């Protein structure tokens, strides 16, 4: 991983056409300004993780898996 | 009562009070806005979250406190505002909001719950959001303790 130190107002450039500017720093948070071509998707990482987990959750559900899961849940006192 | 024909659970009869609206959809399912929350004796303790737009889109969920009894999510103020809730305190579960954790059945039978990003439903407006907590102790793949073999 490349690690760079930047001050408020400074930028970095990635490839052709992507610029990330440090707009503001305060209380443990950083505000970034990102300029990128329209075809580049920009996502907060946690949203990508949540999306991947949702895709995983929506897979493989059928009458058999539901019945199996119910049996397990009901045989466990805590549910 | 309206009836919706689903892929996994057949015909689903529901009442409007059980419909929830996700104004921004869910991550990876941004266009899925209308879901029905189905809680009935036949599927207890599971709660179904069935899309009313896509017959094949069903999430299996549990109340997070059935998994972790002292579950206490930290819902960011901006999320509370978007849900039409008071932003200066955490909402009261059962009175103001309902919480659901989405389950994943993985190959090999392990079942996990997403406690990092619970579904939060405003019980008065029926507006819902999947709230992603950052810097939380809760995992997006919290393994359920299940007795016996695999599912």
Give me the secondary-structure topology.
The complex is a heterodimer of chains A (79) and B (151).
Chain A: E1 11-14, E2 18-26, E3 29-35, H1 45-57, H2 63-74
Antiparallel strand pairs in A: 1-2, 2-3
Chain B: E1 3-5, E2 11-13, E3 19-22, E4 34-38, E5 47-51, E6 58-62, H1 64-67, H2 77-82, E7 97-105, E8 111-113, E9 119-122, E10 127-130, E11 142-143
Parallel strand pairs in B: 3-10
Antiparallel strand pairs in B: 1-2, 3-4, 4-5, 5-6, 6-7, 7-8, 7-9, 8-11, 9-10
Q: Features of this protein?
A:
heterodimer; A: 79 residues; alpha+beta; 2 domains; three-stranded antiparallel sheet; 2 helices; 3 strands; B: 151 residues; mainly beta; BH3618-like; seven-stranded mixed beta barrel; two-stranded antiparallel sheet; 31% strand; globular
Number of domains of chain A: 2
Biggest interface, chains and residues, is: A-B, 30 and 37 residues
What is the H/E order of chain B?
Answer: EEEEEEHHEEEEE
Residue-averaged pLDDT of chain A: 91
Number of helices of chain B: 2
Q: Helices and strands of chain B: which structural class?
A: mainly beta
Cross-sheet strand order for the largest sheet of chain A: 1-2-3
- What is the CATH superfamily of chain B? BH3618-like
% residues in beta strands of chain A: 25-35%
Any idea of the CATH class of chain B? Mainly Beta
Structural class of chain A: alpha+beta
Give the biggest sheet of chain B: 7 strands, mixed, barrel
What portion of residues of chain B belong to β-strands? 25-35%
Structural overview:
The complex is a heterodimer of chains A (79) and B (151). Chain A is an alpha+beta fold and 79 residues long. Chain A has helices at residues 45-57, 63-74; strands at 11-14, 18-26, 29-35. Chain A has a 3-stranded antiparallel sheet with strand order 1-2-3, with no helix packed on it. In chain A, strand 1 and strand 2 form a beta hairpin. The mean pLDDT of chain A is 91. Chain B is mainly beta. Chain B has helices spanning 64-67, 77-82, and strands at residues 3-5, 11-13, 19-22, 34-38, 47-51, 58-62, 97-105, 111-113, 119-122, 127-130, 142-143. Chain B is globular, with a radius of gyration of 15 Å. At the A-B interface, helix 1 and helix 2 of A face strand 6 and strand 7 of B.
């Amino acid at each position: 991983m490349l690690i760079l130190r930047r001050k408020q107002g400074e930028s970095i450039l990635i490839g052709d056409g992507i610029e990330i500017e440090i707009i503001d720093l305060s209380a443990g948070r950083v505000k970034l300004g990102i300029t990128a071509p329209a075809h580049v998707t920009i996502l907060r990482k946690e949203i990508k993780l949540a999306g991947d987990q949702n895709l995983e959750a929506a897979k493989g559900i059928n009458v058999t898996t539901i019945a199996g899961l119910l049996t397990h849940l009901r045989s466990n006192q805590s549910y | 009562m309206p009836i919706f024909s689903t892929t996994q659970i057949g015909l689903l009869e529901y009442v409007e009070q059980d419909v929830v609206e996700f104004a921004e959809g869910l991550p990876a399912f941004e266009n899925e806005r209308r879901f029905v929350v189905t809680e009935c004796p036949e599927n207890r303790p599971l709660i179904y979250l069935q899309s009313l737009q896509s017959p094949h889109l069903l999430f299996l969920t549990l109340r997070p406190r059935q998994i972790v009894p002292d579950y206490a999510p930290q819902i960011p103020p901006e999320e509370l505002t978007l849900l039409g809730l008071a932003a200066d305190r955490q909402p009261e579960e059962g009175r103001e909001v309902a919480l659901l954790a989405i389950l994943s059945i993985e190959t090999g039978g392990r079942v996990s719950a997403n406690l990092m990003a619970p579904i939060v439903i405003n019980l008065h407006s029926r507006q819902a959001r999947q709230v992603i907590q950052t810097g939380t102790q809760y995992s997006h793949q919290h393994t359920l303790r299940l007795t016996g073999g695999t599912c």
